[in-house]
Design goal:
By secondary structure, this protein is α+β, with helices and mostly antiparallel strands. Helix content is about 35%, strand content about 25%. It has ten helices and ten strands. Strands 1, 2, 3, 4, 5 and 6 form a six-stranded mixed sheet that branches. It is globular, with a radius of gyration of 19 Å. The structure holds L-homoserine. The site of L-homoserine (HSE) has 12 residues, from helix 5. It is an enzyme of class 2 (transferase).
Length: about 300
């Protein structure tokens, strides 16, 4: 018995929600086949597209799967094949797609004994392996779909948020790799009250905008006063990409997850395409290679 699934890429943080907010992309992701085996444990039999470890303990899908097996009374095991299309270190939740995909597929094959919240907990073990921190802001939207909020880590509390009907994401990935563990090390561990006030005002505003389908409010709220000023120095021409995306009509723009990908949200596909064009025209003349995607958010 086997299942073939799509594992979505995700945008974490979404500017104002560091480690708590994320969204799933509908048209960017990996494919994974998960198969039940009589042999116990987890075997990763094939990975195409990227050079990643096959050893269960060194692979995020293996580690997430082991966390699920440890809580299950299932006697057998699983085999995993991954068609890895999301580049590791690109900032759109490559490790989360594999961690979340593995446990989601296993749960389906077992007849859904686990809740989505439990699946997130298992998948977080994969994130811990990948980035040293068991953050849930990529795995939660990968499992729940759409926008999610990690209201609390202890106890884990995840809220699914509504997505306005015409919301699109444009994501550009300059072809460099930034490890999440590295881009976390450069962050300060404290913030000022002043910055806190700005940030939670925006986070509340963004969430209200999603509930009210208020695109202007979403746009007004897409700011990050804490992490972006520090991390953006790792990203080629970040300020120009963002400024040109806004000029082309984006509601807002920022770093996707820990970067180097940059995202912009737009109302409607036409605007998302114009934003994509502006991003291309920013990178092409300065000779930066990139991938670019447009995705509806559901
Ligand atoms: N919230 C995490 C970070 C996401 O920004 O480090 C990593 O994809």
């Amino acid at each position: 018995e086997e299942i073939k699934i799509f594992c979505p890429a995700t945008i974490a943080n979404v500017s104002c929600g560091f480690d708590v907010l994320g969204l799933a992309l509908d048209s960017v992701g990996d494919e994974m086949i998960v198969r039940k085996t009589t042999e116990k444990g987890i075997r990763i039999t094939k990975i195409i597209g990227q050079d990643l470890p096959l050893e269960t303990e060194k692979n995020v899908s293996g580690v997430a799967g082991l966390a699920l097996l440890a809580k299950s009374d299932y006697e057998g095991g699983f085999e995993i094949e991954i068609d890895k299309r999301i580049k590791p270190g690109s900032g759109i939740g490559s490790s989360a797609a594999s961690s979340a995909g593995a446990v989601w597929a296993m749960n389906e094959l077992l007849g859904k004994p686990f809740s989505n919240l439990e699946l997130v907990q298992f998948a977080m073990q994969g994130e811990k392996l990948a980035s040293d921190v068991a953050h849930a802001d990529n795995v939660a939207p990968a499992i729940y779909g759409g926008f999610t909020l990690v209201r609390s880590y202890d106890p884990l509390d995840i809220i699914s948020l509504p997505t306005p009907a015409e919301l699109y994401a444009t994501v550009i990935h300059p072809q460099i790799e930034v490890k999440t563990s590295d881009s976390r090390k450069i962050l300060k561990t404290t913030i000022s009250l002043e910055k806190g006030i700005q940030q939670w005002g925006n986070l509340g505003g963004l969430i209200a905008g999603l509930f009210q389908s208020d695109y202007d409010l979403i746009g007004r709220s897409l700011h990050d006063h804490i992490v972006e000023p520090i991390r953006s120095i790792l990203i080629p021409a970040f300020d120009d990409i963002k400024a040109n995306a806004l000029k082309a009509g984006a509601l807002g723009s920022g770093i996707s997850g820990s970067g180097p990908s940059i995202f912009a949200l737009s109302k409607g596909e036409e605007n998302a395409k114009k934003v994509a064009q502006s991003m291309k025209e920013t990178y092409q003349p300065i000779g930066i290679d990139f991938d670019i995607h447009i995705s509806k958010i559901n």
